[in-house]
Amino acid sequence: MENLDREKVLHVASLAKLRIEEDEVEKYVKELKDLMDEVNRIQEVEIEDEEILISPSENRNVYKDDTVGSMLTREEILKNANKKYGSYIAVTRALND
Amino acid sequence: MLVPTIGIEVHVELKSNSKVFSRGKNDFNDDINTNVDEIDLAYPGTLPALNKDVITMAMKACIAFHCDITRHMHFDRKNYFYPDLPKGFQITQQDTPIGRNGYVEIKTDEGIKKIGIERIHIEEDTCKSIHSGKQTLLNYNRAGVPLIEIVSKPVIKDGKEAMLYLESLRENLLYLGVSDVKMEEGSMRCDANVSLKEEDSPVLGTKVEIKNIGSISKVAISINYEIERQKKILESGGKMKEETRRFDDKTETTILMRVKETGNDYRYQPEPNIPFVDIDDKWYNDTVESIPTLPAAMRDEYEQLGISSNNINTLIAYKELNDFYREIYKDIDSVILANLLTGDILSHLNKNNIELKDTCLTKENILKLVTLLSKKEITSKQGKEILPYLLTTNNSVDKIIDDLGIKGLDNSELETIVKNVINANNQSVVDYKAGKEKALKFLIGQVMKETKGQANPETLNKMLIDLINKM
Amino acid sequence: MTNYLDLELTEINKLLKAKKIKPIDLVEEAFARIKKDELNDFITLNEKAREEAKALENLEVDNLLFGIPIAIKDNIVTKGLRTTCASKMLENFDSVYDATVIEKIKAKHMIIIGKTNMDEFAMGSTGETSYFGNTLNPRDKSRVPGGSSSGSAASVASHEVVLALGSDTGGSVRQPSGFCGIVGLKPTYGCVSRYGLVAFASSLDQIGPMSKNVYENAVLLNAIAGLDEKDLTSVKQEKDFTSLIGKDIKGLKIGVPNYYMSDVIDIEVRNKIKEVLELLKKKGCEVDYIDIPNLEYAIPLYQVIALGEASTNLARFDGVKYGFLSDQEKLEDMYTYTRSIGFGAEVKRRIMVGSYVLSGENAKTYYYKALRLRHNIVENFKKAFKKYDLLLGPTNTNVAYPFNRHLDNVLQSFYDDLLTIPVSMAGLPALALPVGFNKENLPIGLQIIGNYFKEDEIYQLASAIESELKLDLKIGSDK
């Protein structure tokens, strides 16, 4: 098992877009370690079967029609958005160039 | 010696009616934020529902590009945060791309070359975003539009090959009917990975990704620029950094966007909400059979028919003209028809910035016109006079000929006139027989005057000589 | 105050049909009870419930569920009635669409009384992770009601409503049903459409009915089950789930996995289950103790799969389209502040674990290994069902415990689900049934696990046990 340290926790937090304050880092390291100790148990079990199970559903080849269904009104689209600009949903600028 | 290695990733929007995982309308050019349902907006509780036609369209592309088809597929989540990605992940096919290991053929100066295709997979498009002031503005019409991503093997050696490769992809996708493939509108988008390595080195060099190039010709320009840029750096002892650059239209150079961090961590994960897709033999065979004649086969056929290579390229490039052409070319003089379509008709369309369907041209009329021309009952000059009326009015060819006062002379009428002219100009006949070529020209002039220029010059010439010789 | 909500569904239906009562009477009684009980089991009450009840007065009472008050877990979206998932992130969120199950219960003219309290985003087993405060266990207000469907269980147990919908990912219907002494079913994965259920772990989540007794549970399942073209994993259901209720159970083959009767299970709980097993033998059932391999790995498996899925399912909460936003000058700050302020501690912890097990090489080491192990566990359950009609064990390792017990133990909330998680991993149906009380008068739940889509057989056995035991489950009654 790789080393679960402070750097790793901060990397994962940046992937998950969570802000971890300086005084929380050690707590997260410990909690994650505790959980991963438990999770590591699955390494001990040997299974011959290579097959993976993505979902318990045995459905296969289930599709929707290629037809246009009912869509939201613009008012509904913008309804819960925090920032709007005309017909757009707005967000802090994503690109600097 | 340093040699370039180029790989190209192409995203192509498929033209299904509805989006790939929702029943939102697949047309992002409609009014801003109108073709959106709760799935496209990633509302809590929504689930993706897969569009079967998208699989069929992607399969068509895979077959056209000679890929192995994956018969048992699932989808995966590709996780990253960006404002244009509503769910915080993109549904794509990481483990089981629908197509693998294909190729397209291009004609290079050294002959036919196969450009390998690593994989083709299905995924969903993101929102269209506009960056304005301190904000980024999001239009969800494009969110969930079906895409295929076509990833080439790193076997392209320069901008020219890249261009030929892209043109071949574009042409085939257009004729498969699965996409509009318009780079200027974004329904075909292209990123190129360029690296240089010592010719005998087994290891590839550090690659630079060029993103968002606006047209096929600019792909060539940007790649060639990038090759030269990297050469200069490496030859002067510099080191390449893995980075993303964009092509700048004005300066025709590439500009640094960002230096890549050590590997992206997309945390790929199978998508549990979409059941396995199993492509059985019937679905596969039906798809194979639904594939229309593709450009390579058309080219061969047109060459056999004797159509000039310029006209062949023009026809293939303008699918609408070519479709029209293919509906009737077997019944008439296909060379004349090709000339008309790629000549006067195309320039009319371009001049007025319209499409063939926007004109009044009918199959009946063009058939008639080509027949008159091929039987030489009218001159090509007359054809040129008639054509604009076929494009802009609903009149028949006969009516237009009448209106223009073009008498489609038949040969017996012409013969009467020729005989009269001969009788009235005995001296010229004598002169011609004595070897004076000018005299024949005079006689032709006289006939033309009588017929108001409607006689076919070739026919007239032959008839006149025949009649004089009989005297 | 009237006492119609203490009656059985069929009796209420008779009164409605005979026009002796109106739906509004039931609504008024529900609201009055909720106010009086002070269990904090609802996050939002439906302001329009009275209006909706009035509108039913001129309609024919055409089905058993007509006019019946129901409580909805607050992770099932309702248009016009906010859906919070008990999170600050969705504190003011009003969906633009109704979940499929909501459409179905509206078609039956049920009346939604309100949205029930729960663990935030269904992550927890005590109700304590709710942004809106703890839900109290109506049987003992100093104890947790269980979770995550805390409010749904509490509101049914206290007779504030007749029925409720919960959701179960690793035990979130069954465990609180056990702690509150009601009947709760987690249907087969695919039996009920998940469209409109805010996803925690997509391959495990199921919406389940919660009720005072077995028959009413089956009636509600009849109303919500079935194929939905919006949920590709859903399956057509043609049977009447009540049809085997009352049928003789003689000859049923029952397996009791040893895993379910181990030393970690409270002795009073085990003894109560053994009593039930003895009863079943008397009734002519065959009962065998059996081994199902690898069940002991179900919890770490769950941590990898459920939290891996949760970490990506919760990525959509970014303050852009809906939900809480902490507006910032820099995009990166906008994301991290929004998500760190909007999500509570347990949710963040689980997102961290889920992201960790999927990142870099871990995807291979943990995630894909877990998917293989999951396949193996499913096969092992299938083998057991070749020999047995139903599997039995306790629902929980113990009875409801006092608040604040687990605050510092990150693993405990998973261990509460020790006996419910294996079933979730396999996608099998399972029902929690109250079978008695311990010395402190706290209910003990039996868990009946059926083969895929055999909910009718589960109800058959559950109903037989229920009518043998004749427990008085009404709170405040003498037992």
Any chance you could write out the topology, listing elements then pairs?
The complex is a heterotrimer of chains A (97), B (471) and C (479).
Chain A: H1 6-16, H2 25-39, H3 41-44, H4 74-79, E1 84-85, E2 88-92
Antiparallel strand pairs in A: 1-2
Chain B: E1 2-13, H1 52-64, E2 68-69, E3 72-73, E4 76-79, E5 89-92, E6 99-108, E7 111-124, E8 128-132, E9 135-139, E10 146-152, H2 159-176, E11 188-198, E12 208-211, H3 216-235, E13 243-248, E14 253-259, E15 269-270, E16 277-278, H4 281-289, H5 295-305, H6 309-317, H7 319-328, H8 334-352, H9 363-374, H10 380-392, H11 397-404, H12 411-424, H13 426-433, H14 437-450, H15 457-470
Parallel strand pairs in B: 12-13
Antiparallel strand pairs in B: 1-10, 1-11, 2-6, 3-16, 4-5, 4-15, 6-7, 7-10, 8-9, 11-12, 13-14
Chain C: H1 9-17, H2 23-37, E1 42-45, H3 49-55, E2 69-73, H4 100-107, E3 111-116, H5 150-157, E4 163-168, H6 174-180, E5 183-186, E6 206-211, H7 214-224, E7 253-257, H8 267-282, E8 286-290, H9 298-313, H10 331-342, H11 345-358, H12 362-387, E9 390-394, H13 412-415, H14 421-426, E10 430-437, E11 443-450, H15 455-469
Parallel strand pairs in C: 2-3, 2-4, 7-8, 7-9
Antiparallel strand pairs in C: 1-3, 4-6, 5-6, 5-10, 9-11, 10-11
Structural account:
- The complex is a heterotrimer of chains A (97), B (471) and C (479).
- Chain A is mainly α and 97 residues long.
- In chain A, 37% of the residues lie in helices and 7% in strands.
- Chain A is built from 4 helices and 2 strands.
- A two-stranded antiparallel sheet of chain A has the order 1-2.
- Chain A is flat, with a radius of gyration of 23 Å.
- Chain B has 3 domains: 2-282, no CATH class; 293-404, no CATH class; 411-470, Arc Repressor Mutant, subunit A (Orthogonal Bundle), CATH 1.10.10.410.
- Helices cover 41% and strands 21% of the residues of chain B.
- Chain B is built from 15 helices and 16 strands.
- Chain B has helices at 52-64, 159-176, 216-235, 281-289, 295-305, 309-317, 319-328, 334-352, 363-374, 380-392, 397-404, 411-424, 426-433, 437-450, 457-470; strands at 2-13, 68-69, 72-73, 76-79, 89-92, 99-108, 111-124, 128-132, 135-139, 146-152, 188-198, 208-211, 243-248, 253-259, 269-270, 277-278.
- A 9-stranded mixed beta sheet of chain B has the order 2-6-7-10-1-11-12-13-14. A 3-stranded antiparallel beta sheet of chain B has the order 5-4-15, with no helix packed on it.
- The radius of gyration of chain B is 30 Å and the shape is elongated.
- Chain C has one domain: Amidase signature (AS) enzymes (Alpha-Beta Complex).
- Chain C is 36% helix and 13% strand.
- Chain C has 15 helices and 11 strands.
- In chain C, strands 1-3-2-4-6-5-10-11-9-7-8 form an 11-stranded mixed beta sheet, sandwiched between helices.
- In chain C, strand 7 (253-257), helix 8 (267-282) and strand 8 (286-290) form a beta-alpha-beta unit.
- In chain C, helix 5 packs parallel to helix 6 and helix 9 (298-313) crosses helix 11 (345-358).
- The model of chain C has no long low-confidence stretch (mean pLDDT 96).
- The interface between A and C is large, with 53 and 71 residues.
